[in-house]
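Hi there, hope your week has been kind to you so far. For a while now I've been wondering how a particular protein folds. I'm sending you its amino acid sequence along with the backbone structure tokens. Could you read through the record and tell me how the tokens relate to the sequence? Take your time with it, there's no hurry, and the full record follows here.
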Amino acid sequence: MYSGYGLGATAASNDGTLGSQPDHAFDNDGSASSYTDYAPDGNVDAALLYFGSNGVDIDSLSVGYINGDADISVLAYTGSLVGGALPAAAAIANHTFAQLLSAGWSFIGNYNMGSTNTAKAINSDNVSSSYWLISAYTTSAGTGKGDSTSLLSFGNDYFKLSAVSGIVSTTTGSVPEPASALLIALGLLGFRARMRDTRGNLLIA
């Protein structure tokens, strides 16, 4: 949590210095110009969220801070877990998006978040998962789901994730779970991914 606006990436090398913009937000600037739509060629910040063994059908996200733009990519793990954890092939460290997508991860969609503190509907297929990967926008994660490409652009995406809303799966059915920044904080504890599209590698920071 930084500056009270939500969760960002506090050690991202492609962020501005403390006190300047984008103030440790999720971003995908990398080596590309902040103001030009480049093909994915730089660092992409992401968060791995864990919601317990029952899993969650996330239906909306909110951001509490935007500087420039806020386009996101969302993946969910839909493969088999090993003792409630991701199998080695599906762990995000040192794997490309292509490898993750072939190892049980599913592309949920790319979305333009619009304005701050406004819930953005996602996951129209109602996928439920214990593990969710939310990153700044990159076509390496997938295409063809979510918002139209006319609403999306790579670069100049700086945002902080403030809330998640969805349905928690249970053994007897499902119950609604309100949007909660605390839920994100618990899910993010110890999990912040740094992704480099240049070589296609995903690295844990």
